[in-house]
Amino acid sequence: MKVIVTGGSGKVGKSVISTLVARGHEVINLDRRPADRPGAKFVYMDLRRREMLQPIMEQAEAVVHMGEIPNAQSGHYTQEEVFGTNCTIGSLIAQLALECGHKRLIYSSTIQVYGFTDWDYTAPFRMPIDEDHPANPRNCYSAGKVAIESYMRLCATKGLSVAVFRLPWVVTRDVDESWFQWTEQEKKLDSSFGIYVRDSDAAECMALALENPRPGFEAYNLSAREVMFGIPIRQAIAANFPDYPQLPETWGAFDSPYIWTKAREHFGWTPKWNYLDEFRKARGRDPVVN
To answer: Rounded to 5, what percent of the chain is helix, strand, coil?
Structure first.
């Protein structure tokens, strides 16, 4: 399949491109800076400009959209620029994918749309968190993601096949001894609840979604099997966030509270990389926080 990847020169975008190329897809990377990705064609692109974007989109069969301002605190942009620029790009990508008859649109959204993992975080409405949890964005970046998802949902009613991935922190480098030491020393759980996913796992799921299109609009959480924290997650949440909804008593000690089973049901995806597996290989046991 001929696939456009916007923002393919970013850390996660590089992994997505490598995965797609390895699976036999013809990939065009649209970005403002080139990346050394063997097998992918690079095209400089201002994603806000239809006259530049449309001729390339017309050549492709599908698009993986990751090319946006990456967070609310990107220093070169005001809050309204983050929101407005991302919404302009996201809506244009979706509209062109619809007009060009693309087989599939994959969109990289964020766990921040739920509001509990953010700089200005708030309690989740319930635990664990699945894709039906209400949106509750707390900054210009996550508010933009919610708006773009809404526009893509609208395009899906007109025939576009859309899969949205609400990514947590994406691990893009190998762990080392300093990570393991932190795991056994840190007692304060932050609002992310230790949720993460490896870049290669996220890229594989996006590829599976691309290759197995479903009608309409679907959103997916992605997560590793277990959290990146040294204290059992139910105990850690109760200690650090006692006023929050709590996990069931039967919850596994380190099981992620960010539910990803929908991706398994729809695409047969399971996360392969798990931080605590790396810890156990290094230490020969589960973490013990001193």
So the answer is: 35, 15, 45
